[in-house]
Amino acid sequence: MAQAKKGDEVRVHYTGKLEDGTVFDTSADGEPLSFTIGENRVIPGFEQAVLGMEPGDSKTEEIEPDQAYGSHREDMVMELEKTQIPDEVDPEVGQQLQLRLDNGQTVPVLITALGEETVEIDANHPLAGRTLTFEIELVDISENGESGEGGNIVTP
After folding, report:
1. 3-state SS, residue 149
2. Does the reported pTM lie above 0.85?
């Protein structure tokens, strides 16, 4: 049987869990995740875990932050004046907003604290700094993307 290698398009079912067992993402109730190994469309540790698997194989893989969403960076936590928040937004801790950068790009940020006149936002990925556990089942391999069913490429 073929083993998954770089350049292969693979389809996997997965369940991602946090350290406390909380499920943060799963494909169990939908279509398998489809991606090509080596195109960096998923986190590095997930891609590495799939390498060498054969269709029908299942495994559980613990992925450290440096192979997932990176460390939580304090330089990505900022304090803004409440006057910088649009009037139509009533800021609340846990609320997600889009921060528009000087170059026009937008970055998702999370409100982490509120002061009298300030709002603290965090631009880190919500899973930054977390060790993640994935249950992975390899459904199918299409060598060099030549066969098999397609699908949208997403990052778990």
Report:
1. coil
2. no
